[in-house]
Amino acid sequence: METPLKREDLFEVLLYARQERIPVSVTPTTSPLATYETIKVIKELGINTLGISLDGATKESQDGFRGVEGTFKNSTNVLNYTRDLDIPVQVNTTCTAETIKEIRGIYNLLTKKFSPPVKRWSIFLLVPTARGKDLRMPTSCPFDKKIFNNYLLFQDVLKNNSTDNEKKDIKGNKNPQG
C-alpha cells in the first residue's frame, strides 16, 4: 500500500503548488497515515480535492478486495474528516467481476452518508496488471446495468447538492455547465 503521505516533502510540494497557483488534489489511499491532523494540514496547504479509494460497501468487501485489514475503516474515517473540514472528495472505485456487486451498496453509502463531501465518483474498469492480473473484468451486461444506472443516479444527487460556489471552474469563473 503506497501513499503520498509517506513522502517526507509532501507538505513542501503542496505549499509550492499553492504559491504557484497550481490546483492540486491528493489521494492518500486507505493508509492509516491519513489522520485528521494530516488531512487538516493538507487542506490548509490549499488542495482542491482529496481522493479516496472505496471498492466495497462493507468492511469485509473493501478489506477483502484491498487485501489489507482496516482499509474500509480508514476510507470512511477520511470521508468523515473531509466532511468536518469541508474538503471536496473524489471517490475512486475499481470495477471488477468481484466488486461489481458492491456498486449499489457503495452508491447508497455515498449518497446517504457522504454527500457532501463527495463531489465525484469515478468508477474505473480494472486494468489487469500487477496484482490485478488475478482479478476478472465484468461482462458488459452487468456493467451496463449496475454501473451506469447507479452512476447516473449519483450524478443527479451531486447536482441537487451543488451550491453556486461549487459551480465555478479552477479560476473562480462561473462554470456554464454547472
Put the structure in a nutshell:
The protein is of the alpha/beta class. The chain is 42% helix and 12% strand.
Commentary on this structure:
With 178 residues, this protein is α/β, with parallel strands linked by helices. It has a single domain, classed as Alpha-Beta Horseshoe (pyruvate-formate lyase- activating enzyme), CATH 3.80.30.10. It contains six helices and four strands; from the N terminus they run H-E-H-E-H-H-E-H-E-H. It has helices spanning 10-19, 36-44, 59-66, 71-85, 103-113, 140-161, and strands at 25-26, 49-53, 89-95, 118-125. Strands 1-2-3-4 form a four-stranded parallel β-sheet. Strand 3, helix 5 and strand 4 form a beta-alpha-beta unit. Helix 2 (36-44) crosses helix 4 and helix 5 packs parallel to helix 6 (140-161). The chain starts with 9 loop residues before the first helix and ends in a 17-residue tail after the last helix.
